[in-house]
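Milestone M4 deliverable, item 7.
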Amino acid sequence: QVQLGESGGGLVQAGGSLRLSCAASGRTFIAYTMGWFRQAPGKEREFVASITWNGGSTYYADSVKGRFTMSRDNAKNTVYLQMNSLKPEDTAVYYCAASPLSCRPNGCKRAPDFGSWGQGTQVTVSA
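Output delivered:
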């Protein structure tokens, strides 16, 4: 398994931007599909974005498409989530996750696809 640690969360006004980072330990980081999920109070954890091992393909939830961009730097064992045009409904704890699967052809989007999880970072968007 791989250990994950998120950073970059915080409080931002609606329309603002944040960039989340997720640092991974382990030499096999390049073998993992990586994902971001979020969980708002009283709601189930939901898929936000995922990226294949080489960054060649990215997948997004409809609610964030066009506003969020996921990327990875395999040399630094780190994935990123650039969040622009933030809305109050984006408020949640954001989790980084790693999957040994490729989930072809539609990408990994389900929480059970991911076996390793970070502790989460809080993102709060004020109106």
